[in-house]
Amino acid sequence: MSNIEHGTQIGVRFIRWGLGLLVFGIFIGFGIIGHYIVGAQYPTGDMFMHNVTLWFACPWTLSVYVVQGGAIGMVIIGTMYLALGRVFPIPADDGNASLWLCIAGLLAVFLTGYVGYFVVDHIWPTFYYSPVTTGKNVWLVAQLLSIVLYWLGVMGVLLNVRRITYQTA
After folding, report:
1. What pLDDT, in 10s, does the model give residues 25-81?
2. How is the chain split into domains, by residue range?
3. pTM of the shown model
4. Distance CA 150, CA 5 (A)
5. Phi, psi of 60 (to 5 degrees)
6. CA 21 to CA 67: how far, in whole Å?
7. How far lies 63's CA from each of 69, 103, 105, 106, 139, in Å?
8. In terms of C-beta density within 10 A (0-12 exposed, 13-18 middle, 19 or more buried), how is residue 2 classed?
């Protein structure tokens, strides 16, 4: 496989996964709408009302937006690889690890932020709506670690692009 073909292949893979995860991110956004229609599962206390701007009154807001924004980022990365592959030689192993870190990170954000909410709520009921600090911290740290996976993938892309463009410039 030529370098141009590899640049095209990894670019297309980023774009396909990015578009798929974007559709998925929009789909899971319906959960937020359902939450607003149905209302909170538990009574919201005074402490929750002080933090409502942080949470936008729905527990899944962060995970939905990270998946959507990350998916758009993957489409942009894929487009960049398509363009770079036409100008610079791209080694055959470049981009694969970054692609899978981005995919794993965004799927982990969904699992920890969306599905994980119900798991943590089962262990610490009302943790989201009342000040159950341990439950909130466990849930938020899990999401943070998931976002770090995505960030590592994007940093891998940055390092790949720097190496590709500097070695041939």
Report:
1. 888 887 777 766 665 555 665 655 555 554 556 788 888 899 999 999 999 999 999
2. 3-168
3. 0.83
4. 25
5. -100, 5
6. 7
7. 10, 14, 11, 9, 11
8. exposed
